[in-house]
Design brief:
By secondary structure, the protein is an alpha/beta fold. Helices cover 38% and strands 19% of the residues. It has one domain: Rhodanese-like domain (Oxidized Rhodanese, domain 1). It starts with a strand and ends with a strand.
Length: 109
């Protein structure tokens, strides 16, 4: 794969159910803390190095942002770093959140 691909909320959920993908969330700290896709990794400039050291480059990665726009650039960046299969989540976290049947992790109250 020389370029990232787009992926829908439903396709992402299916891949998560099969445990065949890692989701990375590139939103800011406050947005991630307020809610995120269960088991997603908060990917920031500070965590990028450890993420790249810990994750196999052949494991598919889905990049999530607010609305599915910034994730496209981040997904292409991961492709250039050597990740073999990278997706940008269409509609971002907002599309995910709107799907009532999918779980969103929220902070403990």
């Amino acid at each position: 794969m020389e370029q990232f691909a787009h992926i829908s909320v439903q396709e992402t959920q299916q891949k998560l159910t099969e445990d065949s993908v890692r989701v990375v969330d590139i939103r800011d700290d406050a947005a991630f803390a307020a809610g995120h896709i269960k088991n997603s990794i908060h990917l920031t400039n500070g965590s990028l190095h450890s993420f790249m050291a810990d994750v196999e480059f052949d494991m598919p990665v889905v990049v999530c942002c607010y609305h599915g726009i910034s994730s496209q650039q981040a997904a292409q960046f991961l492709i250039h770093q050597g990740f073999e299969e990278v997706y940008s989540l269409d509609g971002g976290f907002e599309a995910w959140r709107k799907e009532q049947s999918f779980e969103v992790s929220q902070p403990d109250l």
